## 1
Amino acid sequence: MNCRQIRAQLADHSAGLPAGGDRERVEAHLTTCASCREHLDELRALDRLMAGDRVTASETLVTRVMDCVPPAAEWPGPVWPYVLDTAGPLLAALALLPALLWLALQRGMTWLPALHPLGPAYWLGHPPAAAAVTLGLAAIAATVLWLSKQWAESLASG
Amino acid sequence: MVLALRIAHPTCRTDARGRDAALVARARGGDRHAFEALVRAHKDGVLNLARRIVGDADAAQDVAQEAFIKAYRELRRFRGRSTFATWLYRIAINEARVYLRSQRRRQAQWEQQTAGQAGHPAANERDRPSHLLVELLQEVPEKHRVALALFYLQELSLREVAQAAGASEATVKSWLHRGRERLRELAKERGLV
């Protein structure tokens, strides 16, 4: 390994991060290469400086925060995120179904009346079609559910 | 030669997680004292994180305050998939980014208004980084800076840094690598290391 490869691993090792490669080879290289030893010393010095450069938050910050936090009686705050998080995905999936039916009608799909509850004989007579439609709807519902949850998560994290 | 510099304290971290989980449960029930205890437990971490990202002590206070208030409002949505600290740091990072965006807009407006005028703008004391190391961090790209700021809190594992930064572990490792290398170069130029 050359110095460039060694230094890439050195940075991870010195930071306590998981590093690929052979740790012993890195250490062996360090015993013979003054330049890489200097590089490691610089990284360590930097880490020590940064770790030591910490400030302590004053009591004022706590007071400022708590002054803005509503009293317990006003909890739980806005309800809409909670509603969105639980009922939102389900409603989105349900809302999609009429839209699909409408789209199918618009396109003149003659098999559509068989979707009606009074026409289960159609589905019993066409198991592959029934399975395909069921899987398709399940996939659409799962995708909508997943996307809604992703959206809700992104809202939750700021 | 021992290479590892960063020392993890798994026992302390587990204790802190247990404490946070209990406090979060109480705070969700409307207990303001429990939330105040959470603020006290994490105020230094959030403030240091914000300070390293935005580079200004006063702005960091504002960012930290906003982050805690937002965390309180969103507490009900915290599911415990990550630790409370990781979740809180993610909120603080978002708040810091909002601040940096508004700063850039203000800077652009200021430059437009003063275009063609003689003289160099006098740096506002409030906008001046409070410390040379923090100033160096401002010269590192924002993504790398966020990863470094989380890393130098020395409380989080790589996985937690990745969760808070909103990226994969491999990506964050690459950001840390490049960020530390850039920071080392800058510190060397200024004679700090």
## 2
Amino acid sequence: MSTLVTTGVPSAQDIAGVTPPEERRARGPYATIECFQPIPCDPCHHSCRFGAIQEFEDINDIPKMDWSKCTGCALCVAACPGLAIFVVDETYSETECLIAMPYEFVPLPEKGQPVKLTDRAGIVVADGIVQRVVAGRKPAGTPVVWVSAPKRLATVVRGFILRKEG
Amino acid sequence: MSVRTTELVIIGAGPAGICAALEAASHGVKTTLVDRGEELGGQLIKQTHKFFGWHKKSAGTRGVLIAKKLAGEVLNNENITLLNSTEALGYYDDGTLLVETPRGIDRVLGDRLIVATGASERMLLFPGNDLPGVYGAGAVQTLMNVHGVRPGDSVLMIGSGNIGLIVSYQLLQAGVRVAAVVEAMPTIGGYAVHASKIRRLGVPIMTRHTIKEAYGKEQVEGAVIWELDENWNGIPGTEKDLEVDVVCLAIGLTPLAELLWQCGAEMAYIPELGGFVPLYDETMETTRKGVFVAGDVAGIEEASTAMAAGRMAGLSAARSLGKVSDLDYSRLRNEIAGELEGLRSGPASAKILSGIAKMRAMLQSVKEAAAVSEAEPANRPAKQAASEPTDAGDLPKAGARDSEAQGNNGSKSEEAVGA
């Protein structure tokens, strides 16, 4: 039984299955879709302008990525109703990567703001900085926040908190 | 007491009832939509999360925006009369629906009835469950998302179905701490994406755990949770004391079917559908002719399927009133049936499908029993059985005025005998 269904945290195997191969990771930003259960949902496919999220045969299909077509634009990050898509850019700098995450809290952070980076269990793993904030589409789209993180944590960081919990 | 006459009465203006009304009205059916709430949309008005489903339908839209859109369509539809802030009190043999409006008691007399009353929340037994601070998830959502009131500072969520997970997320968005989500089953009940979303925000989800007690003087001051063994008994020594001022129950829903009992529709207890549900066919018609159902009252599911099932009920009611041509009917029926099938084709729908299959098997045997008793010459004269709708004693009369006018509604062999 995967830890996904007992704790909500996907297993290492789950994550490996949605992470592109090393050579693709070294080439530029890519989307990773952490959607592991067949549920009736298809907006991610329709949000992609580049055909990187393949067409669904059945509404319950798990999304399939063609990373050769993905530009890392992050439109799918804002579109996913399950907030399960992230874009990772491991070419951001020598030591850092950039991660785009859906963020539905107020207030939105500001560019340059330091944050505590968290993993899939909500545990703080490092410090990061907000690099870009894309407001959601009106009237109620999901904002996308890009944060820089240590490169070694490119497949680990999946959240952030603005300030230390009081 | 005034009497309103109408072709179709729909009880409940949630996603199922509204979609039923819009579908029926699109075929020219004069429809009266009754809802006890002031605002249209049922539970949708509290749903601030984005919906799954088809991109071309409402997927990616938030429930509260769907409610707004649907409400606008209802208000602009000249075939729909809306009775909001109006409670349906009872349904009588002559087809009268008694309602309590803000102005007093009224009668509504309709040729057809669609019951889309939804569901109510289940309660859980534990010491301290009567303390202020113990809420149902629906109440928490109403407080936060309709009235803008935080229910407390720190919450223990009981149940990891989609409602428990989504309400936990909404609590976090409102700045409320969620101490834990406990789940008695060995696995999380709701969609993994919802679970991962709150887990990422640091909320522990503890399967095989439940609440042992809530305690406090005047209100909830804390709660004790513990682990369950394989026989669902708490394991002594595994207790954890959580400092919370709210215990939120999200342990499931059960169909709100009182009016259907009163109608004399055949009911059956089907756990997969959430409790007692009416027996109904593919057109959403119950065993009481002219009475249709849609949404959670027909089996606990979710809003996307409720909307499609509502359309099916509205179409069927319009068809039975002679408002839909054969060609349009078969096209629309196939379209909606295909949509429902698609929505239910994944593993998450296995339970609901097995419940529906069980219910249909029961419906079949009720119909067969009815056919036998109809063929039995001792019970009634054969000629009369073939042409008369019913004798009032053993067959409840829905849409009574209509079946008398047409004279053939009760003669079909598939008509079921009421309880």
## 3
Amino acid sequence: MEGLELISFQIISSVGTARSFYIESIQAAKAGDFKKAESLIKEGEGYFVQGHHAHAELIQKEASGETTVMNLLLTHAEDQLMSAEAFKIIAEELLAVYRRFEEK
Amino acid sequence: MKRIVLLCAAGMSTSLLMNKMRDAAKAEGFECTIEAYPTTNASSVGKDADVILLGPQVRFELNKVKNQVSCPVDAIDMVAYGTMNGKKVLEQAKKLLGV
């Protein structure tokens, strides 16, 4: 498999896994298990960083003059990256909301 | 002939994996059909499937899909997915099929 295709898949796989963990975290909070919800966010962060590193590699290459030709797969990978990033924020906010419900 | 179904968010990345798996199946002479769909199609395409595998980005829907179908369902190994290892994912599918 070619370099760019492989990097794209590393990104999709890592941040996709992270995204799943963030969503599972919200589900855990909904069920009242906040300890699990927090550990799921932590776990997601670990995978997100892996995907972020793969993406950063491309950015560094571009900064050093080696331009990456965009294709649909890489666009899809970046889309997944953004979605995962946003889901972490949403998960953290929802955790706080569910906690407040619990307190009442 | 066994029917393997792959599910992900849009069916895009799994389409590429599908091709790699088809190559792997052909290479080892394993007769099967392999198709990729978005998870929204799970209940309709899952009816005739013998095994369903989910991409890492939709792994959180594992239980939901399990409730919609009667065949074995699992999430694709993240490393195998990230490296587009068609052979390894095919092995995972075969293990679930018990062949």
## 4
Amino acid sequence: MTLPGAWAVAALVPALGAWYVTYRELGSRLAAVGAALAVAVTVAYLPLQIDHAVKRADTYEELTRPQAERFPAHRVHPSPQVFDRLRARIPDHATYFLYVKDSTGELVSGGGFRHWTLGWLLPRVAVATPRQAGWIVSRFADPRTAGVTVGGVRTLAPNTFVARVRR
Amino acid sequence: MKPTDALQLLAANACFLVAGAGILRLLGFWRSVRDLLFVVAIAYMAGVAVVGVLATIGLSVGLSVSGPEVLVLCGLLGTAGFLRKPDVARRPTARPGGAALVVSIAAAVALVGYLAVLLLVSYREPMGAVGYDGWAIWLTKAKAIYLLGGLDERVFAGQAYSSINRDYPLLVPAVEAIDFHFMRGMATGLLHLQFWLLLAGFVAAVAQILRDRVQPVLLWPALLMVAAAPAVLRQLDLAAGDLVLATFFTLGALAAWRFVDEADPRWLALAVLFLAAALATKRDALGFAAAFFLALGIATYGRRRGLRLVTAGLGVAVATIVPWYVWIARHHVPSKHPASAFVNPAHLASTADRIGPALNALASQSFRLDRWLLVLPLLLLVAPFVVVRTRAASGTFALLLLGLLFVWLVWALWADPFSIASLAVRGADRLVTTPLLVAGVFLPVLLAELTREGGPARVRDRTGESRGAAERGLEAPTR
């Protein structure tokens, strides 16, 4: 946040006023200096803060409730509707294993994709191994290579799959 | 966003207020409705604190924090206040005259206006617009509590959820889950409103705790500076636990300061409640609590009854968080920040090269003008004069506490197993929130101490007469 020089100078006026009034009222030079510096820096920064906040409020004015609830999904997947498709496919209270690889084929935790899936798919519960899971949710990985027998592999978005574990 | 969702969230917060009002009446802070107006913000914050702490305990023993459970709890706490008729002696409030009144009102109006702007942002801003932890960690836990009916060990002890900091206490997710129960759905887009209510409640509570101790011409400009600090807005956007921890801890510190200065056990009880809430919010609070009780113990050393009360308070605060730590121990939930690392001399010696970067990271965040304005520099400017000139125990307590908080943070960054570079970049800005809020609210307190040193402190009391500070009642009561 950059402070415009002219505004910083203008903030000195109320600061001087605060110094004068506080000193007259309380008789302590140091207390007056403290109050004046607090006023100066606040008056200098407050308009920037308000401007910043109002611009952000304008940015989100048109969001509907469903859009607001899905907002982080846009940051973790190029096709954010994939999470709704996962919800539609996996029944409530079912278990699933998150199977995510990176571009080199190494298993990874999944970062934002993992975090958003964990929260969005509740009350479906993630488990630590494919053997405990009823479903496999995979990204950049073929569910058939997860180490369990799966059926009905569905592609929900490019590189994002869901499959049911066969017992 | 449906307006009814916002109203239902407000209804949940009204329940917190009822609970807090009951607790405050039981402690003897108000008797009539008129008295309540002078402590209503403290009551609200105390209500969130007590419900949050009891919800954490309740979740740990198998309850679900459903709407009916919360309503019964708040009703019981609210009526508990009427078990006794307290004697309430209100101290006179400083009333500035003439130009000082104008400055005080201008700062107060600017503060209210700024909070109104933040309310607009909070109402519109979705979770996840800024930052990551708010939705990735805290919100996921809240959803799990709401949708799975309490602490489901498949989530809270499940290895698949290791990335959501399973060992962190539950106050924030519990309060969010209570909001969901009242909204009968997960209108997550409204959760910023809950965080705004906590911020506004905090600011108003600070004003009410200090109203009879700090002159308005000092209080309002300092409070405005703290609230308008860009770091506070950033923490509000993040909707994570750091700001909540900082607000509860800071209120606890202010209440403890009043206990040190006035030897009134009601303030210690309030301090312990807020500290218990801080402990139920984040693990970082364990170190802050140690600093808190150490500073309080030193400040009350020599007062036999004071030290006994402080020890009892420590016991109560720690007892409230035991059920949660028993739950995580019973379910073998490992910590990302193992306690052994903090006290292992071999580990500390081998990582001593982290001290310099840790100090650098904390100092650079704390002194950033574009984050915390002049909060810490001003406090450091004033502090030596307060200690040398007034020798007030309360001033010593404030400075000691602040120093110990920073010592703890350096220790935490030193002992932590994570990369210091990553902590310095991503963690230090949030870690300093608590000490900087403490510094911000103690700034007007210390400035007011300077005016108690016998100078010609001219202020007006309720009758409008100009008197010296000692005559007017801003002096601490004699013990």
